[in-house]
Amino acid sequence: MTIKKLLTSLNDIKHGQDFEIQGWVQNNRGNEKIKFLALTDGSTVDTLQLVIKSENIKRFNLDKINLGSSIKVKGKLLLTPTAPQPIELAVDDLILINNTDEDFPIQKKETTLDFLREIPHLRHRTNLFRAIMIIRNALLFEIHSYFQKHDFLNIAAPIITSNDGEGAGETLIVNSSEGDFFKQKSFLGVTGQLHAEAYAAGFKKVYTFAPTFRAENSHTTKHLAEFWMIEPEVAFYELNDIIPFADNLLKTVISNVIKKYPSEMKLLDSLKDNNLITTLKKYISTPLKIMEYKEAIKILEKHKKEFEEQNIFFGMDLGSEHEKFIAEKVVNGPVAMINYPKDIKAFYMYQNDDKKTVAAFDLLVPGIGEIIGGSQRESRYELLVQRLKELKIKQEPLQWYLDLRKYGYAPSSGFGIGFERLVMYVTGVANIRDVIPFPRTPGNIKM
Ligand code: 4AD
Ligand code: MG
């Protein structure tokens, strides 16, 4: 039995029922007559209150039990419907499994996120990180459920690959210590998309949910060298089909997480001036705004005085300040930006009739910017070959991908959700390093 199950099934509990549980001490307060320990088992941010009275306090040596210690307790469950905690455990027996040493860095007093980033193996012992990791897990589960309910096939795109799937040259190289293991250039995958496209041509609806790797030298609060991406790919879908799908997926997933994790969301909400849940609920109930890239350029041009980068022109890659301006000031909510200039987007995107833009979309959200990038894929073999030439990308390693266009190809569209960016959005956490257990960034690979 977990604390989460216990707290959500109070109706099934008999007052005075025997109960036994293991966990960690999160708080230890009281006096010589009565002590209250808060016990966590990681299943929820809520704790189980342990009550220990009179002679037992000395018997269990409670004054010596430090925060973070692991214990096993036995006792009787008492329903306390009028108290702030609806249930408590009156302890008859307590076994200290392992006390924490004095130097345990997680203490009751507030610590900074910077400090906690130095101890990624221990920071989950704070309530904040417990909440973040529980929401991360919840999002993962809801995303898988959504796809499974909609008859998507999960595919294991390879982690090690001979393709630079984005053609951006931001790859981490894989080799054995002896060298030349695969007898050709091999990378950690930057995307599972190309492999997902192969499977979409046959399974129709597929998705990946896997780590991806980018050697981007970006020291920002939104970039990791190792991040998780969810990449659905749907055959017979065009851009206008895939955008509403992405919108529905996100809204369903977020709404379920808010409903199912009230304690964690409440804790995170309190750290965001109680504005997090309201903002998310507003997003869920508002139709997604769609904006042409060229329309955004016109708006940004009018406000260029407000930016650091004031050179605004059709063809520019929008900076984070521009993306945020559109999402925060213009739309005041998430926005799907569509039809980007082809020169700032990847080789595989469908070239629009205007010859200038591609059928791409980015989902931009306030506070973060891009959380999804996707597109309709170029279906025309010749145009794809020509695009590779223009971009000086070698055709040979991608020949298999080009060949898909020859064997019963159907239009195909898909997107990638940056999983950590989604976790940031839902938890309100500002730095991407704080929503993944062990973050990897340029120059930083702890543990
Ligand atoms: O826009 P991106 O580069 O698109 C792709 O990789 C496509 N192959 C997806 C597809 O169509 N199947 O990346 C998708 C998302 C971004 O919107 C962003 O949220 C996230 O992945 N992302 C990163 N997240 C953390 N750290 C990084 N370095 C990221 N790079 C991209
Ligand atoms: Mg992108």
What does this 3D model show about the protein?
- By secondary structure, this protein is of the alpha+beta class.
- The protein folds into two domains: 96 residues, OB fold (Dihydrolipoamide Acetyltransferase, E2P), CATH 2.40.50.140; 312 residues, BirA Bifunctional Protein, domain 2, CATH 3.30.930.10.
- It is built from 13 helices and 15 strands.
- The chain has an eight-stranded mixed beta sheet with strand order 6-9-10-15-14-13-12-11, with helices on both faces.
- Strand 1 and strand 2 form a beta hairpin.
- The protein is elongated and about 85 Å long.
- The model has no long low-confidence stretch (mean pLDDT 95).
- It binds 4-amino-1,4-dioxobutan-2-aminium adenosine-5'-monophosphate and magnesium ion.
- The site of 4-amino-1,4-dioxobutan-2-aminium adenosine-5'-monophosphate (4AD) has 22 residues, from strand 10, strand 14, strand 15 and helix 13.
- It holds the Pfam family tRNA_anti-codon.
- It catalyses: tRNA(Asn) + L-asparagine + ATP = L-asparaginyl-tRNA(Asn) + AMP + diphosphate + H(+).
- It is found in: Cytoplasm.
- Homodimer.
If classified by CATH, what would the architecture of the largest domain be?
Answer: 2-Layer Sandwich
* Helix-residue proportion: 25-40%
User: Largest sheet, if any?
Assistant: 8 strands, mixed
The small-molecule ligands in this entry are: 4-amino-1,4-dioxobutan-2-aminium adenosine-5'-monophosphate, magnesium ion
CATH superfamily of the largest domain: Bira Bifunctional Protein, Domain 2
Output the CATH topology of the largest domain.
BirA Bifunctional Protein, domain 2
Query: Count of helices?
Result: 13
Overall shape: it is elongated
Biggest sheet strand line-up: 6-9-10-15-14-13-12-11
DSSP summary, beta strand count = 15
- The structural domain count equals 2
Please tell me the overall pLDDT: 95
